[in-house]
Amino acid sequence: MEQRGEVSLKKKTESEETTAKEEATTNKRGGECVNGSSGAEQNKILLMRAFVEKQDPSSKDVDDYMIRRFLRARDLDIEKASAMFLKYLKWKRTFIPTGCISASEIATDLGQNKVFTQGSDKTGRPIMVMFSGRHFPRKGGLEEFKRSVVFSLEKVCSRMPEGQEKFAVICDMEGWGYANSDVRAYLGALTILQDYYPERLGKFFFLHVPYIFMAVWKVVYPFIDDNTKKKIVFVENKKMKSTLLEDIDESQLPEIYGGKLPSVPVQDS
Questions:
Q1: Which residues fall in a compositionally biased region of kind Basic and acidic residues (predicted)?
Q2: Fewer Cβ in 10 A, N or C end of the chain?
Q3: Averaged pLDDT for residues 19-24
C-alpha cells in the first residue's frame, strides 16, 4: 500500500503522464532541447523533471543535462533515477550547506599535494591527476577527505567546455604502499562519484600500480558499478606514454608523463 503523500511513477495513468509532459514543457528549463538526446529520452527527461519538482521545488534550479545524467545512470528508469536525484539534493543541502567548499576547510588534505588539474583529452574532457602515494589516512580525517573529493570534483567540472559533461582521471600510484592504504576513503570517494556525480567520469587511468595494491582492489571492486568498470584502464608501465597519447595530445599531457603541460594544484586551477 502506498503511503499518504507519495507519488507512484509505476501507477501513473495515461492522462497523468500527459499532464506531466505539459507541465514540464512549460517550465523554462524543462522546455529546453537537450543536445544528443533522442525523442524518447527527451520525453523521459520531461517526465522526470515534472515528478522531482513536485517532490523538491529546488529541482527547478538544475538544467536538463543534470536530469539526463541521473537518468542515464539508472538506464533511463525514471523511478530509480528520480530517487537517486532526490537523494543527491538532500545530500548537497547537508554536506555543502553554503553551496561550495573552500580551500580553508580542507587545508590538511590539500597540504598532501596529491591532486592536480590541467589540460584536456582529445574529446575535450578536462584532466585530473591524483597521486595516491601521497595520501596518508589520518584519525578522524575521513570527513575532510570527502570534502576534498567534492572540492576537486567541482573544480574539474568547472573547467568543462560547453557541450562537455565528463572528465578524465590519471591516478598515479607510484610509491604507494600499505601506509597509504585507506579503504574507507576509497569507498567514500567512490560513493560520492557514483551517487552524486553520475555520468561525469569519462575515463580512469591507473598508472604505476604495485602488485600489493591488488589486495585492496579486490575489496573495492565489488562496489564499482558496471558502467564505471568499463571506464577503468590499468596502464602497463612500458606502454604508459603511448597509451596516454591515444587519448591525450602531447601538448595536453603532463610533463611527468612525457608531455608538455606543467602541473597545477587543484586549488589553483
A1: 1-31
A2: N
A3: 46
| Structural contact between residues 124 and 93, judged by C-beta atoms closer than 8 angstroms | no
Confidence of residue 4 (pLDDT cuts 50, 70, 90): very low
Type of residue at 173: M
What is the maximum span of the chain, computed from C-alpha positions, in angstroms? Answer: 62
CB 35 within 8 A of CB 65: no
Per-residue confidence at 33, pLDDT binned at 50, 70, 90?
Answer: low
Cell of 262: 606543467
Look at residues 186, 151, 158 and name the one whose alpha carbon lies nearest to residue 171: 186
Question: Which position has the grid cell 502506498?
Answer: 2
Angle at which helices 39-55 and 14-26 pack, to 10 degrees? Answer: 90
**Element at 185 (helix H, strand E):** helix 183-191
- Per residue in 98-120, pLDDT (tens digit) is 989 999 999 999 999 999 998 99
The H or E element spanning position 207 is strand 201-207
Say whether pLDDT at 264 is over 80: yes
Instruction: Work out the end-to-end distance of the chain between its first and last CA atoms, rounded to an integer number of angstroms.
Output: 51
20 neighbors 12 (Cβ within 8 angstroms): yes
Angle, alpha carbons 150-254-247 (nearest 5°): 85
What's the CA gap between 9 and 43, in Å, rounded? 14
Report residue 232 as a C-alpha cell. Answer: 577503468
Q: Does the pLDDT at position 199 exceed 90?
A: yes
